[in-house]
Design a protein that fits this description.
The protein is built from ten helices and twelve strands. The chain is α+β, with helices and mostly antiparallel strands. The chain has two domains: 134 residues, Gcn5-related N-acetyltransferase (GNAT) (Aminopeptidase, 3-Layer(aba) Sandwich), CATH 3.40.630; 168 residues, Gcn5-related N-acetyltransferase (GNAT) (Aminopeptidase), CATH 3.40.630. The protein is globular and about 70 Å long.
Length: 331
């Protein structure tokens, strides 16, 4: 069977919202076979289906076996107007192993179409792959992808013994240093715009980051079921924008964990302990809400020293996700 041919008796069609439960069962089976546990909720999947910039009618595929059962799912999604296109594919552990190559082919083709729609002559297709998903990694390597960075999902326990972590010992909330003002954004648009502005400057040039307008950033999170604007903090230093932290409820259902989605410090405010301060404040709030741990994802090649910062507050890696990339010239 060629890399583009479907296994005998299989068919591809576009997914629709009514397919969510079946697609979710497929993804759970995939995750359990690879990780030993499901790594998303059905609400997470619904958020992905309704993500701005993604349309399952043009950007998604569902693979059905001879009995009409969903055994594969794949998608492609643009990253703003950049030449980077995120793609992914999932195959049920009991399905024909050749299905993965077929799904990878169709999402690469769609990634190329997205690139042409945006006026690019060359794109970079990017896939996040669990380090332990050896079969998927082997397929990506065979198809010309290479690992360009690794993200660690990190965790710290909030209900355990934190006596050795002096910075976190007081989960009632740390004192705020002189000259620093920290505010909860909530639904205050001015504060959210200020936090977004810091995020844009702080993450400029970081791997995989593309510029977002405030409306794009707000629209992305406003539609996600895990967003809680009362967990967005904005800090000023000497009355100047300095730092922001956005936490969500992404892992509350599965892990009873708070999740730090984004933490950024303006370049002019770095070296003043603001990142650690906002982490401590967010951890205190998570603990107050009954969360037993806090998690976040970090690019291990981050030049700002983020990995060392998170290790300094007791966070340890619990999952590794390699980012594989392939440049594709468009004819």
């Amino acid at each position: 069977m060629s890399a583009t041919a479907l296994p005998a008796g299989h068919a591809l069609r576009r997914p629709v919202l009514d397919d969510l439960p079946e697609v979710y069962r497929l993804l759970v089976a995939h995750d359990v076979s690879v990780l030993g546990f499901p790594d998303l909720t059905e609400d997470d999947l619904r958020d992905e289906f309704t993500e701005p910039g993604f349309d399952p009618v043009t950007d998604g595929w569902l693979a059905l076996d001879a009995d009409g059962v969903a055994v594969g799912y794949a998608w492609a999604c643009r990253k703003g107007t950049s030449a980077d296109v995120d793609i992914d594919f999932y195959v049920h552990p009991d399905a024909d192993p050749g299905l993965g190559g077929c799904l990878l082919t169709v999402v690469e083709r769609r990634a190329g179409e997205i690139g042409r729609e945006l006026g690019h002559g060359r794109i970079r297709a990017m896939v996040g792959c669990y380090r332990v998903a050896l079969g998927e990694a082997a397929l990506l390597a065979e198809r010309g992808y290479t690992v360009v960075t690794t993200f660690h999902r990190m965790r710290v326990t909030l209900d355990g013994d934190l006596a050795d972590l002096a910075d976190l010992a007081d989960l009632a909330g740390p004192p705020v240093p002189s000259g620093v003002t920290v505010r909860v954004c909530g639904t205050d648009e001015d504060l959210l715009r200020a936090a977004h502005g810091v995020k844009e400057v702080a993450f400029r040039g970081h791997f995989g980051t593309v510029p977002q307008s405030f409306d794009e950033w707000y629209g992305h999170f406003a539609k996600r079921s895990s967003t809680d604007w009362s967990q967005v903090w904005y800090a000023e230093f000497d009355d100047e924008p300095a730092a922001m932290l956005l936490a969500t409820n992404a892992f509350v259902e599965t892990d009873n964990a708070g999740y730090v989605q984004a933490l950024g410090v303006h370049p002019r405010a770095r070296g003043k302990g603001l990142a650690k301060l906002l982490l401590r404040i967010s951890f205190a709030e998570m603990s107050r809400r009954g969360r037993t741990s806090a998690m976040l994802g970090v690019d291990t090649n981050n030049a700002s020293g983020a990995l060392s910062l998170y290790e300094s507050v007791g966070m340890r890696p619990v999952l590794e996700i390699d980012v594989w990339r392939k440049a594709i010239t468009l004819g």
